[in-house]
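Q: What does the predicted 3D structure of V-type proton ATPase subunit G look like?
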Amino acid sequence: MAAQQSQGIQTLLEAEKEASKIVQQARQYRVQKLKDARTDASREIDEYKKTKEREFKAFESSHAGTTSVAQTNVDRDTEEKLTTITESYNKSKDTVVTKLLDRVVLVHNDLHRNLTKPDA
């Protein structure tokens, strides 16, 4: 009976060693799969970044002309408005200066319309 118990214990120990090997292999397999997944994900991210960068460059180059045309139009409009304002200033400045000087220099000693003379 002792031999059977010894043999049973031996069988259990061997089974435990085999199970330990299987668990270790499973852990290594899992670690390898995680590394592979990270590598694949990193590669996919890089490819996606490159694709989006190319799309952005294409969009930027297609709209670059539009920006320069718009800037040219804005500059032209600004110059036209400045010219109009300058002409208006030059045409009206003498009249405005004269009116201002008349208001300051020519003083009228009239009572204000809301002020009535006291009845004496």
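A (community wiki): The structure tokens above were generated from the sequence. The chain has one domain: 9-104. The chain has a mean pLDDT of 89.
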